[in-house]
From TrEMBL:
This is Xylose isomerase-like TIM barrel protein. GO terms for molecular function: isomerase activity. Keywords: Isomerase. The keyword ATP-binding does not apply.
Length: 297
């Protein structure tokens, strides 16, 4: 038996205990692949990356957003980018975005950030990954003036990424919506970045959690910018993360009100607070998503 056939067959068997029965109609072909942000299962990936990917694929996940880039080896999860791409191909998985550690270069010389970005571009091209995403800004940099500096960096980085044939995006958390005398960091990013160079990845949980706007409103107000979404639920009591369907965010209502015209990719995510463990949580979220939400996407 060839290696690729073996991996694919073992994928379905290895995750059988985690794969719940779904009522989702198999005849319908959704517009988008069901995506997973791998940070959700970071503990499992640290212990057994290939086995974890097999199980995720068996649950129905088809597309990934990755993290944990090694710029020295141009690698991911202990594998060089080319080796990791072969693993993904064998499992019939794609990668459409990656979160990279740009924040650690925020106050370093520009040439260091450019060199790191060059390495990120090389890795993305090897994986055939359409987007590179800036995911985080460290607490010590979260001033209005630094959001202006950030916007300038995002613009030239977006230009460099676009010249390489890829897309560039910024991912929000809660801190971008902190009020600074009537202005927020997110206001600055929206106003001072070039929409043609810097797209946006909306974390819907954090928008609901901390913004004065709803995801529906932001997407309608900025057509064409929100090319990626993070979909995760909010615990009804603690407001921490929770499995899809267990929390307070009414995604049926939300997704039914959004035109996904600009959307290219979405990722189910849960940063922690698992009911049992990370792998069971992505199985439970996948089941809820397929039964209740996938019809909108």
């Amino acid at each position: 038996m060839e290696r690729r056939d073996f991996i694919k067959r073992s994928t379905w068997a290895s995750a059988a205990t985690l794969l719940p029965i779904t009522k989702f109609p198999l005849a319908r072909k959704p517009k988008f692949k069901m995506g997973l942000q791998l940070f959700t299962i970071r503990d499992a990936m640290a212990k057994a990356p290939i086995e974890s990917l097999k199980k995720a694929r068996a649950m129905g996940y088809e597309d990934l957003e990755i993290y944990g880039f090694d710029p020295d080896r141009i690698g991911y999860y202990g594998y060089r980018a080319g080796e990791f791409k072969q693993i993904l191909d064998d499992l019939d998985l794609t990668v459409s975005s990656g979160h990279y550690n740009f924040s650690s270069y925020f106050d370093k010389p520009e040439d260091e950030l450019k060199a790191y970005l060059d390495a990120c571009i090389k890795g993305a091209q090897i994986l055939d990954k359409p987007y590179i995403t800036w995911p985080w800004l460290a607490p010590e940099f979260r001033t209005l003036e630094n959001f202006k500096v950030l916007s300038g960096k995002l613009n030239w980085m977006g230009e460099q990424v676009k010249a390489a044939g890829l897309g560039f995006a910024y991912h929000n958390h809660d801190f971008e919506f902190t009020d600074h005398n009537g202005q927020t960091g997110y206001d600055i990013i929206l106003r001072e970045t070039d929409p043609d160079l810097v797209k946006l990845q909306m974390d819907m949980y954090w928008v609901v959690h901390s913004s004065n706007s709803t995801p529906q409103e932001l997407i309608a107000q900025h057509p064409g910018r929100y090319v990626m979404w993070h979909i995760k639920d909010m615990d009804k009591v603690s407001r921490d993360y929770t499995e899809l369907g267990n929390g307070s965010i009414d995604y049926v209502k939300m997704l039914s009100q959004i035109d996904p015209d600009a959307l290219a990719y979405y990722y189910i995510e849960q940063g922690g607070n698992f009911a049992h463990n990370d792998m069971q949580s992505i199985a439970d979220s996948a089941t809820f998503f397929k039964e209740n939400l996938k019809k909108y996407l």
